[in-house]
What we know:
mainly alpha, 7 helices, 73% helix
Amino acid sequence: MSETISTASAPPPPISSPPVPTLLELCAAFAIIALCGFGGVLAWSRRMLVEERGWMTPEEFNDAYALCQFLPGPNVVNLSVVFGRRIRGALGSAVALLGLLGPPFVIVTVIGLIYAQFGEIAALQRMLVGVAAAAVGLVMGTCAKMALPLFKDPLGLAPLLALATLVSVGVLRWPLYWALGGLIPLSIAIAWVRR
C-alpha cells in the first residue's frame, strides 16, 4: 500500500496581493516619506511604496511617476494624489496629500524662523552644504534603481531612448522641448507596436 502524492494536479499557490492601506496608513506613509526625504522625496517614496510596503511594483511606480512628470505641479505631490486616488478614491488623494505636505509645512516654518535668527553662522552654512551633497547622492541612487526595469526590455529600446534623451539634451544641448517633441512620439509609437 504505497501512497503517491501527485503534485501535478495541485493548483498553484495563490498570488497574494498586498493589503489595501487604510486612510490612516496612507497618511502615515506619506508623512514618513515627507519627513525622511526632506528636500527630495523621490527616493523615499519609491522605497516606501515599492520596497517596504509592496503597494506598487517597480514598473507600476515608474509608470505612475512618468505620468506625474507630465502633470502640472511637483512630481511627488502629483504621485501622492495619483496613488491616493488609486487606493482610496478622492478622499485617499486628499489624505495622501495632507500626509505629504503637512509635516514639511510645519518644519519649514520653524526652520525659517530659526534661520532668520542664526543664518549667518558659518557652521550652519557648512552643514547645509553637506545636506545638499547627501540629497544629490540619494537622487542619483534612486535614478539608478528606477533605470533597472528599463533593462528588462528584450530589444533594449528603452535604454536606447533614455540614452538618446541624455545625448540630445546633455551633450548636444538641444532645447528640452525639441528633444522631447521628437522622442516622446517615438517612444509612444514603439510602446503601441509592442503591445
